[in-house]
Amino acid sequence: MPRLAPKELKLEAKEREHLEKLINRHTTEQQIALRAKIVLLADEGENNREIARKLKISRKMASQWRERWIAGQKSEIEITERIKDAERSGAPAKFKPEQILKLFKLACDDPKNYERPISHWTGRELAEELVKQGIVESISPRQVGRLWEEADIKPHQSGYWLNPPPDPNFGEKVNDICQAYESAILGEEKGEKTISLDEMTGIQALERKAPDLPMSQGKIQGREFEYIRHGTQTLIASFDVAKGQVICSTVGNTRTEADYLGLAEKKLKLLRRKDSSRIKDRQNTGK
């Protein structure tokens, strides 16, 4: 018995152009690109068996997306929507958008405002508060956690920030610093040096209790978990603004005014030594 020929599929020029662009676009999902290829081959007169063989898919899949495309053409559905998955029917959403928004607002509020002696919300505490306020009839801590995760809300975490005191002369100071940096290169050409002195405190001096294990095929590098503390260190360094180089640096347990002074004197000695060397070079060359 001869096989029935599949339904004829014909594309308009704009439809073919749209599908070809989808296939060539790097951001197109693989399954969308595959369905676009099925439709294009069907338009070229290939039957379902030939399409399945060329694309290494089942004949059922080739037939399914041929039918879906033809149905979409008749219903005048937007081109890309014809090769997307149909919306699945499932259980209705358990919480209304208004309830979820109120959950997010509570999560961003201080728990102490609701007479809860905790510093950060937990899933259990927030679930209890939602029920207490009548926002929802019931909700589990796990559901609260899932909604937090979807909205990228992390009430269990906190970070420090510095609130600087107001400085009426802030703009003037910034302007002075910027001018100093701008004139550094011109000063360098005249033999002047612009040096920036800064510090980094609280650097942990840690020593691993055991050496690292080398990486090997199928295994990443292994690093000892435990370490030995050697206190904290303070790094003080001077920066040649014109050349963009660190010139002198010291590392110590603490930072005092004497440390700054010592580094400044060290830098001056180094500059004087370089200047005297240049003078000798000029004398030797007769310049």
Characterise the protein shown here.
By secondary structure, the chain is an alpha+beta fold. The protein folds into 3 domains: 13-83, no CATH class; 97-151; 192-208 and 228-287. Helix content is 46%, strand content 13%. The chain is built from 10 helices and 3 strands. The chain has helices at 13-24, 30-43, 48-55, 59-75, 97-108, 123-132, 141-151, 170-182, 184-189, 257-285; strands at residues 195-208, 227-240, 245-252. Strands 1-2-3 form a 3-stranded antiparallel beta sheet, covered by helices on one side. A hairpin with a 4-residue loop joins strand 2 (227-240) and strand 3 (245-252). Helix 1 (13-24) runs antiparallel to helix 2 (30-43), helix 3 (48-55) crosses helix 4 (59-75) and helix 6 packs across helix 7 (141-151). The chain is extended. The termini are far apart. Residues 279-287 have low confidence and may be disordered.
Quick recap:
The chain is an alpha+beta fold.
Which percent range fits the helix content?
40-55%
Q: What is the tally of helical segments?
A: 10
Give the CA-based shape.
extended
Biggest sheet layout: 3 strands, antiparallel
- Average pLDDT, all residues: 84
Strand content: 5-15%
What's the number of extended β-strand segments? 3
Poorly predicted runs are 279-287
Going by helix content, strand content and strand pairing, the class is alpha+beta
Total number of distinct structural domains: 3
Cα end-to-end separation: 107 Å
Give the neighbour order of strands across the main sheet.
1-2-3
If you compute it from the alpha carbons, what radius of gyration comes out, rounded to the nearest whole angstrom? Answer: 35 Å
| Element-level helix/strand string | HHHHHHHHHEEEH
